[in-house]
């Protein structure tokens, strides 16, 4: 059963135990591994974010999510910056056997 929690830590300056500002969610994946995801500062918002995350995982498992959605959200300028133009010479070929156009 998934859940949400607010981790605590020891402040090295004062030696007191404090809680983080963010809420975190946890769930078990298909392999049974415990996964933690950072959520938000609001408790109700954190529960909603965790629910949406789990629903998305279920939809992905069922094949209902577009696999290219992440790339479609990125700006075109990012894609163009990563694009490498093809080389003028074909790989593994020399200029002697490359077809010449007149």
Number of helices: 3
Helix-strand string: EEEEEHHH
Strand content: 15-25%
Work out the number of β strands.
Answer: 5
Please, what is the average pLDDT?
83
Low-confidence segments, given as residue ranges, are none
Structural key phrases:
alpha+beta, three-stranded antiparallel β-sheet, two-stranded antiparallel sheet
Question: Can you describe this structure?
Answer:
With 102 residues, the chain is an alpha+beta fold. The chain has one domain. The protein has 3 helices and 5 strands; from the N terminus they run βββββααα. The strands form 2 sheets. It has a 3-stranded antiparallel β-sheet, covered by helices on one side. A two-stranded antiparallel sheet has the order 2-3. The N and C termini lie far apart (70 Å). The mean pLDDT is 83.
Structure described in brief:
The protein is α+β, with helices and mostly antiparallel strands and 102 residues long. The protein has helices spanning 43-62, 69-73, 76-82, and strands at 3-5, 8-10, 17-19, 24-28, 34-38.
């Amino acid at each position: 059963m998934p859940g949400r929690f607010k981790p605590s830590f020891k402040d090295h300056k004062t030696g007191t135990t404090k809680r983080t500002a963010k809420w975190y969610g946890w769930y078990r994946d298909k392999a049974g591994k415990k996964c933690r995801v950072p959520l938000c500062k609001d408790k109700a918002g954190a529960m909603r974010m965790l629910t949406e995350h789990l629903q998305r995982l279920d939809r992905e498992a069922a094949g209902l999510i577009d696999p290219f959605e992440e790339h479609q959200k990125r700006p075109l300028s990012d894609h163009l910056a990563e694009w490498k133009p093809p080389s003028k010479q074909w790989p593994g070929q020399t200029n002697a056997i490359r077809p010449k156009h007149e």
